[in-house]
Amino acid sequence: MWTALLRAAKRHHGQVADRGLVTLIARDAGVSKAAVSDWKKLGNYPEASTLRRLADLYRVSAEELSGFIKQIPECL
Q1: What homologous superfamily is domain 2-66 in, according to CATH?
Q2: Mean pLDDT in order along the chain per 10 residues (76 residues)
């Protein structure tokens, strides 16, 4: 989840470096930097409403942001 969130936040904010992104993501999500650090370090997930808010802001699906991308079945 963290990798997808980081990639979307970098794209949204036009940043290449990771430095300062925890602060930006926390501001975007309306949560503390400690909460975002928990997502990063512990692999915890944000609440569904927070994930949807970030997905809307970053213009990606909530599934993509959470790391759960729907697979398109192959046609026979």
Answers
A1: lambda repressor-like DNA-binding domains (1.10.260.40)
A2: 91 90 95 94 87 95 80 51
